[in-house]
Amino acid sequence: DNLAILVNTAYADPAQFSGLELAFAAVAYALQIYCDFSAYSDMAIGSARLFGITLMENFHAPYMAQSSKEFWHRWHISLSSWFRDYVYIPLGGNRKGAACTYRNLLIVFFLTGMWHGAGMAFILWGLYHGFFLILERVWLGKKLEKLPGIVGWGYTVTAVFFGWILFRAENISLFFTYVRNMFVAHGGTILLSAYLDSKMIFLIVMGVLFAGVLQKIYEKVRVHSAGKIPANGMVTVPRMIACMVIFWLSVAALVNNSYNPFIYFRF
């Protein structure tokens, strides 16, 4: 909800922002949509567990992916697995040659875009991701495997980053205006003091850390600790206390802000 303030203002009129601020706002939206969607998926999973129902994991550190293929294995897992099982595989998957595989991928991601909305921006967003998946199958995937992991991560995050600008822009004209103003001097006023205050920068930095960086570090520590850390993380009492502290700090931060509905309620 805090990030939405910057995001909504920037996308309403990109011309009033400097390129630096538009870049910050684009990063903020990438964090907003992840935190919004992943969090309410966790709320649904947790609520279901109270009734003895186990739902599938829907996100697994997607911004730590090192390829577009891996990103879609980590992002909105319930949707991507549904399209895999009920569209991609029935169409023949990758069993009928390269040309049919590429066709099937484009169909799946065209439908993925349509699932989010009938607007051209959503359709192009779906085809945009389909293009990168095909590119990785044709050539790029093998190259990425030979390069350091940070290269694949940088490529993936950049591709996803610009994809989110298209997704949020709502129409093609606004998308091109936004991207052009990010890179071309357009007389936008630097409004860092008005929108990118210390609180907003803190939220963006913490969002980046908690969107996968800290999880990646934690997983490496667990591997090197040879099982000394319990499978469920910290011991029960400290973990419970930490969760409660974070919960109440989050509630306190939300109390004085305007309400922003879940992004995915519109889909």
Observed structural traits:
11 helices, single chain
Describe the structure.
By secondary structure, the chain is an all-alpha fold. The chain contains eleven helices and no strands. The protein has helices at 2-12, 19-50, 68-74, 77-88, 98-116, 120-146, 149-169, 172-183, 192-195, 198-224, 236-255. The longest helix is centred in the first third of the chain and has 32 residues, at 19-50. The mean pLDDT is 86.
Strand content: under 5%
Mean pLDDT: 86
Helix-strand string? HHHHHHHHHHH
What's the story with the biggest beta sheet?
none
Structural Rg: 20 Å
Query: Which overall shape is indicated by the principal axes computed on the Cα atoms?
Result: globular
Query: How much helical structure, as a percent, in the residues?
Result: over 70%
- Total number of helical segments? 11
Structural class: mainly alpha
- Could you tell me how far the N terminus lies from the C terminus, measured between alpha carbons in angstroms? 18 Å
Poorly predicted runs: none
Secondary structure tally: strands: 0
Short description:
The chain is built from 11 helices and no strands. The chain has helices spanning 2-12, 19-50, 68-74, 77-88, 98-116, 120-146, 149-169, 172-183, 192-195, 198-224, 236-255.
Lay out the secondary structure.
Elements: H1 2-12, H2 19-50, H3 68-74, H4 77-88, H5 98-116, H6 120-146, H7 149-169, H8 172-183, H9 192-195, H10 198-224, H11 236-255
